[in-house]
Every structure is written in C-alpha cells, then in structure tokens.
Fold this protein.
Amino acid sequence: MQLYKYIGRNPETLSTGRPLAAHDLVEIDLAHHHDRWLVDSGRLIPIDTDGELTGKALDARCKELNIDGWSSMTADQKRAAVKTAEKNIDTGDDQ
C-alpha cells in the first residue's frame, strides 16, 4: 500500500466509490487497482507516511505550481512553498 495525495482541482471518485477532494490523502495498492489513471495523470501523487511530498513528486509539484527558485531549495523549503501555493489556489489569491 502507498499513500497518495489528491492534487486535482476538480473532485473525483475512486472506483470504490470514495470521493476525493483537493488535498485528500488515500492509501491504495496500485498493483491491481482501477484508479491507476489518477496516478498516471498526475492527480494522485505519492507521499511519505508523514503525509509529506518527497523526491520527484515534490519536484514535480513545485514545477506544476510554478514555484520560483524551487531547484535551489531544500526539501523543507519546497514543502513550505508548495503549502503556500496550494493555499493561495484554494483561496483564489495570486501571491
């Protein structure tokens, strides 16, 4: 089982009937899972067991959110920048 974070902008429903909203966490095994397309499309991203983005998933989210200077940031700085950017998206704030 792997923990994933849903980062899509529109709600989705898993094949099990479970609804997903922005920033929801879900634990699924993709070995035989019908919801693999959500991972392949980038709407579900893997996170560590603490609920934090790591490695390539963290870098990809920084790119997706157009975070300036992300490539020279530490992982903790990237996570903080992602959190701020996601909050701004949720509130409709540009900065």
